[in-house]
């Protein structure tokens, strides 16, 4: 069986940036850049025409910006692409808007070439990716803004990693862009349908653990953990593990200050 290359679309208004990304990505066997676009609308059109596996999306562009383009692409049932948002701006509003609009990954442009390649590979596999510092900021934001909700957290595992830095002063909850999650009563019903093991997996997902780390923590095979993750996402009506992190903190699945 021949593995097909990962097909990537680059959307950025700077031609030199696109050229740099193309050089980095095409240096990796198995990745092919199939198109480029210089603004959000051109990116949407190219996504519909090419249906790539992964779209590397800039945020600030003339005309239609990257966040709007991401929303349009994710909402289009004919496009199966995963969107990786790339930006030079380390701003929380961009991060949370990107998550709210359906991005499957978020990476700063000062990341290493290896990190960009890995991010594209992760999204192409159908997983979602947040850089470790971004995951920490999601956790800090939601643990600082959202108190523990009415749903008890899964039984905590013994702490093996240092606690994340204390949450900074946060904006009021209404200013935080979140996923379009279910109303509280619907969320409670969905959470009640999780098995004890699935609740544990959700809890550890929300703490930023990867599948291999969850497998080690729960003494399970990684394939078993992946099955549990899929079932959690299906039962909660979530697209990927990024949304699972946000959902868990929105609905009090993890107590503020909880650590991995």
UniProtKB/TrEMBL annotation:
Residues 187-252 form the HTH luxR-type domain. It comes from the Bacteria. Residues 145-174 are annotated as: Disordered. GO terms for biological process: phosphorelay signal transduction system; regulation of DNA-templated transcription. Residues 7-124 form the Response regulatory domain. Gene3D superfamilies: 3.40.50.2300. SUPFAM superfamilies: C-terminal effector domain of the bipartite response regulators, CheY-like. Keywords: DNA-binding, Phosphoprotein, Transcription, Transcription regulation. Pfam families: GerE, Response_reg. This is DNA-binding NarL/FixJ family response regulator. It comes from Glaciibacter psychrotolerans.
